[in-house]
Amino acid sequence: MHKPAWHIPPHRNPQLNARGELNHLLSIDGLPREILTHILDTASSFLEVSDRDVKKVPLLRGKSVFNLFFENSTRTRTTFEIAAKRLSADVINLDVGRSSTAKGETLLDTIDNLVAMHADMFVVRHAASGAPYLIAEHLHRIGRSDVHVVNAGDGRHAHPTQGLLDTYTIRHYKKDLTNLTVAVVGDILHSRVARSDIHALTTLGTGEVRAVGPQTLLPVAVEKMGVRVFHDLSEGLRDCDVIIMLRLQNERMNGALLPSAREYFDCYGLTPKTLALAKADAIVMHPGPMNRGVEIDSEVADGSQAVILPQVTFGIAVRMAVMSILAGN
Amino acid sequence: MHKPAWHIPPHRNPQLNARGELNHLLSIDGLPREILTHILDTASSFLEVSDRDVKKVPLLRGKSVFNLFFENSTRTRTTFEIAAKRLSADVINLDVGRSSTAKGETLLDTIDNLVAMHADMFVVRHAASGAPYLIAEHLHRIGRSDVHVVNAGDGRHAHPTQGLLDTYTIRHYKKDLTNLTVAVVGDILHSRVARSDIHALTTLGTGEVRAVGPQTLLPVAVEKMGVRVFHDLSEGLRDCDVIIMLRLQNERMNGALLPSAREYFDCYGLTPKTLALAKADAIVMHPGPMNRGVEIDSEVADGSQAVILPQVTFGIAVRMAVMSILAGN
Amino acid sequence: MHKPAWHIPPHRNPQLNARGELNHLLSIDGLPREILTHILDTASSFLEVSDRDVKKVPLLRGKSVFNLFFENSTRTRTTFEIAAKRLSADVINLDVGRSSTAKGETLLDTIDNLVAMHADMFVVRHAASGAPYLIAEHLHRIGRSDVHVVNAGDGRHAHPTQGLLDTYTIRHYKKDLTNLTVAVVGDILHSRVARSDIHALTTLGTGEVRAVGPQTLLPVAVEKMGVRVFHDLSEGLRDCDVIIMLRLQNERMNGALLPSAREYFDCYGLTPKTLALAKADAIVMHPGPMNRGVEIDSEVADGSQAVILPQVTFGIAVRMAVMSILAGN
């Protein structure tokens, strides 16, 4: 029987060191509220760095940060590369698809080699849920807790920096989370963003978190994550303060789970009309890249309630905060 | 009816800011002589930097320069990467072919995202004429005149840094342009280099600019660009001071426009014999990469009149000058 | 008749300048013992840099180092990139497979262009034996002895930094080489690593160097390299101090030279049982990436006698030493 990777029990969560400090960022699940708040507060202070004339601080100077993207994502890799360079780190992008793993080397042999080259941090993206955990546990086993792992997205499991930047964005616009209603809309079943968002929002005590989507695109027993389920978009959006639209993966569109992109848009696409059901000052978020006309109408995406580009700006600050905290600054 | 992109009227040219200073480098066409001269003069001062033991100046320190090469060109990307690094910028190469655009994101969504990451400059290469204009106009529309665009080659339209470095080279070897005869030879129809060269040379008051090539490879009404047309190579080269050979794109060679590479070489290839028709001190230029034995004989390419490699050296200095001027130094 | 590239006579060896100093690192063959010792001693001093909090020294600041990998190798490229960045150089990775060479430009035209951009150093990997020699001789011919070449592996010819790091590793663990017995095991015929190891070890006066492998995977007249030949693994390992296992290239496994990977492992794979024939304190080396279960058993690869990961660490220091010496520090 399939046991989802996101059910890894907290006591095996290797994210914290013996003093309870963040040693790896693998998942929002299992992180205490204090650590999330510390990251968000630190990000605030980095937001200003990207506005400077010289966008650079020397906090990671002389550190070697490796981008290990086993699954290709130019945009996410770029955000980590920028964040690391603004911290003055040496960044090495490994085109892992074409490297030694292709020559039959195991993932952990690759890691051992990079550790032997004195790597300080791995930013890992992998199609398999749990790959960053595997690496973190291996580092623990070989006694190298001075090398840090940041999960940049693993399978359907987690995308913790996205969860953090989304929370940062909400906190930025809405201040107090306790009275908010936040709707996460779309393909929650396949979305690591949704899972990380939901964990971050519930940990920080958000008033109500809603999961809105068709039955076929919601995980079984999703209620156990602390969300209220809606299959009807209008009901799900009613009186919301925040709407997080998820990207519909192209590969789902012609599959068995969905009739067609057009029909999806008719039922779950965010339009000015459905947006009007939310509160008048509701904000609209999207992790990008957007499928305009599939999950979101261009009028909404470019409208005054959208905060999709500020999310990107906050994302750099959040990643600088995470890297800086892990490196012990 | 097809209206060539290079007929964008000057009053819509978004290259200059309200004070008449260079804000983007999109095309030589539409730039006043003073700005061209200012770039060339600035390049002179950067030439010395690449000769230093420590080839670095801090003018772009902490700036984020994005190489957006929608059309692959390792060589041109490398020249911009070197120029930016010698100015101490953080350079991020985006492998755009494999990025979000492939996931259905629009060009302007990609730009908006990078602007949200606090990009300072985009170096753009695109197979479509006008793509860098589109980006510059978008930046103007969203009020971000602090973000700059450098056109690194767009379709058949323009390759302005090549036009500038070619002009720099001519000025370096021949000083005064007003009495010179310059022949541009080859496939002018498909060449953005030719268009940028011709605009730069005529703007700077070159004595005579000649367009030399077969009828099928010259634009209709090319005379309107201020050139004298020759279909015969010998006549076109006679008494020239400067010969700019164009690269014959491989894809033209077996097409309807040309009988064969061999026949092209016989009619339009530069050999010691045809070179002898030009002035004794004529210089030979080529934007590279050369097709030896197609548009140019190896004896000429490696001969004493060739200044093809100095063009490359000057190209770095010109790109440093452009980036530095755009960044406001 | 085929004349192996590694028979290039020493008097044509362009590695040394007129004062006998290292100007290029192309091959261990032809280098005097003093230079090898100087590189190893310099590497010692760089080992400490990678252990610092700020892993950076300014020795190559403002220098432009080009990684020219005509043959793909993410791992080797990464080691040179890290080494150069820790020396503060500007590193430019050229994806040569997709560059101008693909547009018909010759190798030396590419080199001429990069020299014109003020390159300081080329790190070259090429499938053809002798390619880095060709580049070095060209640089000599054009009078540019200030530009340096490091061979990062050429065909079956040489991989000198691997030879140096292997020697460094042996010296680190065993101090004096004169009384040692070192076995090089596997596909020596196709291995540039083996050739560089053997040259380094014999030049430094190693007691006995053994070449162990099947007749079909040993070069003709391998004894002339100063090694003792063994076809039987047990005999070859008996009383050894050092065992260097070679990677079996996948492409050999199903060819005419070898019956199967399984049979190879049975005859030449290093297992705890065969390792026991060597001295009790023998060390086990491998250039990586390993084929576990083909040339080496996992129990040995991960065992207490393996020094495979220290090899990687020393490799960074050795490459920093080579680059620093070439740059004249």
CATH class of the largest domain in chain A: Alpha Beta
User: Biggest β-sheet of chain A: count, sense, barrel?
Assistant: 5 strands, parallel
Spans of chain A of at least 5 consecutive residues whose pLDDT stays below 50 are 1-10
Please trace the helix and strand order of chain A, writing H or E for each element. Answer: HEHEHEHEHEHEEHEHHHEHH
| Widest beta sheet: strand line-up of chain A | 7-6-5-8-9
The protein's oligomeric status is homotrimer
Number of helices of chain A: 12
- CATH level-4 homologous superfamily of the largest domain in chain A: Aspartate/ornithine carbamoyltransferase
Summarize it.
The structure is a homotrimer of 329-residue chains. With 329 residues, the first copy, chain A, is an alpha/beta fold.
Care to describe what's here?
The structure is a homotrimer of 329-residue chains. A 5-stranded parallel β-sheet of chain A has the order 7-6-5-8-9. A 4-stranded parallel β-sheet of chain A has the order 2-1-3-4, sandwiched between helices. Chain A has 2 domains: 5-159 and 313-326, Aspartate/ornithine carbamoyltransferase (Rossmann fold, 3-Layer(aba) Sandwich); 160-309, Rossmann fold, CATH 3.40.50. With 329 residues, chain A is an alpha/beta fold. The first copy, chain A, is built from 12 helices and 9 strands. Chain A has helices at 33-47, 74-86, 107-116, 131-141, 160-174, 192-203, 233-237, 250-253, 261-268, 272-275, 298-301, 308-326; strands at residues 64-69, 90-94, 121-126, 148-154, 181-185, 208-212, 228-230, 242-245, 283-285. Helices cover 36% and strands 13% of the residues of chain A. The A-B interface holds A 50-56, 72, 74-75, 78-79, 81-82, 85-86, 250, 288-292, 309-313, 315-316 and B 61-64, 90, 92, 94-96, 98-100, 103-106, 109, 112-118.
